[in-house]
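Holo model, magnesium ion. Inputs:
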Amino acid sequence: MLLQLNNIFKWVQSGGQRIFLLKDINLEVKEGEFISIMGPSGSGKSTLLNVIGMLDTFDEGEYHFLEDSVHNLKEKHRSNLYKEYIGFVFQSYHLLDDLTVQENLEMPLIYKKFKGSERKAMVADMLDRFNIVGKKDLFPAQLSGGQQQLVGIARALISNPKLILADEPTGNLNSKQGEEIMDLFKQLNDEGVTIIQVTHSEKNAEYGSRIINLLDGRMI
Amino acid sequence: MLKNYIKIAWRNLIKNKVFTLANIIGLTSALAVALLLVMTALFELSYDQFHENKDSVYQVYLSNQTPRGLESGTSHPAPLAPALKTDVPGIKHAVRALSDDALVTYNDKEINLDAEYVDPEYFDLFTFPAIIGNAENPLSNKNSVAISEDGAQKVFGSIENVVGKSIALKLGKEEQLFTISAILENPPSNSSTDFDIVIPFKNHPEYASNIDRWDSQFHSVYVQLEEGVTPEQFEKNTQEFTTLHYQGSIENAKRDGAVANADGLYKQFHLLPIADRRFTSFASGAAEVKRTFPYMILGIAFVIIFIVCANFINMNIALSEKRLKEIGMRKTLGAVKRQLFFQFWMESLLVFTVSTILGLVLGNLLLDPFKSLFNTRATLEHVAQPNIIILFGLSIFCITLIAGGYPALLMSRLGTLHALKGKLDLGKNRLRNSLIVLQFAIAILLISGTLVLHGQIEFMRNKDLGYNKEQVISIPLNGKKDSYRVVELLREELKGNANVLNVSGADNNLGLGRDGSTMSSMMGFDYKGRGVVTNALTVDYDYAETLDLEVVAGRTFSREFAADSLSLVINETMAKQLGEEDPLSIRIPMDDGATTYSVIGVVKDFNFQDISKQVKPLTLFMNNGWDLYYAYVKIAPQNITSSFEAVEKAWGNIEPQAEFLGSFLDDNVDRTFRREKTMATIVTSGSILGILLSCIGLFAISMLVVAQRTKEIGVRKVIGASVSSVALLLTKDFLKLVGIAFVIATPMAWYFLNEWLQNYAFHVALSPLFFVGAGLLATLIAFITVGTRTVKAASANPVKSLRTE
Ligand SMILES: Nc1ncnc2c1ncn2[C@@H]1O[C@H](COP(=O)(O)OP(=O)(O)OP(=O)(O)O)[C@@H](O)[C@H]1O
Ligand SMILES: [Mg+2]
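Output:
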């Protein structure tokens, strides 16, 4: 089992009142699953994803990731944990504008303290695998949306994470580009990568092995 | 239309409250300080400019080729001025002038006044107008004197009915009656000559005995040239004259191996414009006119203004990036370049106008503390001149044009579509970065200047001057009694006091006393066919003991030897100059062989002059025919205050009429570098303000940069960056700029400070530590300024950073 959420609550205080963003979330994810989270806008999909990704905290409940109890971990250990096991993919790609494709891919490896020669090899590998060798010296602004998302996924994958979290990865793409990205996810999942994606599209949700529906911060 | 511009400008300023406030605070304080500094500088520069004939009146100085090189002197013999007038063509007036004290007695009251002994034509050359009495010629006869308003107040308590009154002046050993012929306006605060009373030169006690002597030099000479005559012509016209009148000393100079100047002359008269007097130094032998001090102050004022303007421009450009969308909108709505430009300019103008008004108010509020802190008598009148106001207005116009115009220009050139997208590549921020580099280069320059200045002052304060300055009080002998008698009486009065160790006297002070007077006394004689020049000091018994001078050979003057009035004690430099293996064997014939002096002792060199000067040859005489002017009292290191009071009390018993002006020698020494201290205060405050203002700018810029990079920071953290690596990334860019500034500023600072230190014969070593210290300090300050922002930004939750889209 990869991770387990038990009775997770998250709220914000507003005018003396608790506004719940997540309510009593219980979720178990096994390695190799491909899960789609769905729900209306504002239902807490991104919030849940961020909690799973350890970018955001929660107020109550337990979160186990592999052998670790995330709710008991210090900030530093938590960030080490997600650095090692989790990759993020965003709707608006979030590439670094001032860096080339190649440099964007290299960045996480630098932060994870890989050696220069290792980094070169891993970046070259990734460029090859995504068929974007010809684009390696271009800047994000010089790429189409689909290409940018390709780079975004490559960046998330480069340090071999066990889990990919994707928040509406196809939201800014046309349907053809979107399909390509979903095919890529399917392929990655077949290779053993666990994927959790947020999506609004029924069709894209079908790629997954399981669908979780959220409404007002509650799983239904 | 204009109203609309102002309205929108106002709204924009309100919207960016923090930046507007930062700008106004920065500009206001910078303008206020600059106002005060400019006032001080202009005041300094205005010295002696009020003399109506300043363009045709000169001070005469004589350059001498000596075996030691070029030396110049402004002290001249009594017959020079009349001879110049009769023998040299092109001279309208030649007058003698001598500053001295005069003891005035009126109705049993004794008052010491600053006196100026001058020839009657003095008032034709210098503009010191009379307000009551004989304005045409205040010194019309030998027994008339002119008194200033302050002088009249001191003596008579009023300026009414003073003209025509008689006062007694003690000139030399006698008292003499004089009639007040006129009351003069007080000399303005920017006059190099300051006096309470003006006395005809011929009454000076030294005059009668020196009337025809060309070898006794003791006063200044001023000339007014006839119209159309240039100083160069004067120099030519006096060549033969000089050869004739200074024949003897020219021959001596030749004999002693002096090298003639480029014109083949050994002595040459030169003229110094009277308005240059305050800024002239003869330290290197030739006259050097240097207005370093006022220009340095102006420089600091300019630099401070530059720093805030750079802040202003930087913030404006950075903020304008935020406004790209607005501008794109306006352009699609049909705004033209000119309108955009006016919009930006109006905002700048608004900020500057508010700051100028506040700056003027603040400057006025700070005026009095500033004047006492910086020890200046400048007033705002020195700034409130039409051309300066116009210049100021013009520079504001230009600065606002750049500050407002540059971003406007950049944006109005930008394509509409580009602007709407909200991306602006401002030449990789080159302008912003160069301005920051310049700001910090200036800051580093000022900091290293501050450090070196304080280093030099500490050095001067702590240097072993060769005498005991902590335990010795010097007292100007400003009473009526015979000076030897006063010293003797002091000995007797203080004999019973166990804390008083020694009492002596001399005819010169050490350092600068509370009487504010300095003098040097030189003499020359022939020794074994060679001319020798030495400083001369007349001392009383126990001089060396009182001052803890170290005797390196022989003995000092002693009561046990009856013939000591023909003995000499010399310093090591003098001994070296005389060049005898055994200095105690030296016999020196003087007064054409009428008397022979013998050297009885050699004292270790001590700094009897300013620390800026090398120790020169010095000869101590003991001759009670020559007056003493200062008494020295050495006290025990314990109970210093009560000992000082005891000395003051003793003085009161001996000279009840004369004010006690005694002071410790270390205070006297401190007083000699008052100028350096003022300079240090100005440079220090300048650098503190400069740094502070630079930091306001840097802080604002870092805030904007961090805001611009919020998304980037979030992304970097999500892909695994740690807080420290992100903070470092953001801070590094700024520290790089400080590094570049350091590289630029250090050689410049080194050069200027090295030049400055050359003015001091004894100075602190220009260690690299000063510059490393300045660099580190600037880096540290920049780091703290930027770091507070960047660390905060780096610690922010990336989820939030990424949501702000
Ligand atoms: N820090 C916060 N403070 C207050 N409310 C918040 C905060 N973060 C999120 N919310 C609220 O929580 C709710 C869930 O937000 P979330 O971004 O998870 O929705 P979402 O399901 O991803 O919606 P969308 O499909 O539009 O992306 C929203 O109503 C949002 O306004
Ligand atoms: Mg969302």
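Chain B has three domains: 57-289, 429-460+675-805, 479-660. Residues 420-424 of chain B have pLDDT under 50 and may be disordered.
Archived with the compound record.
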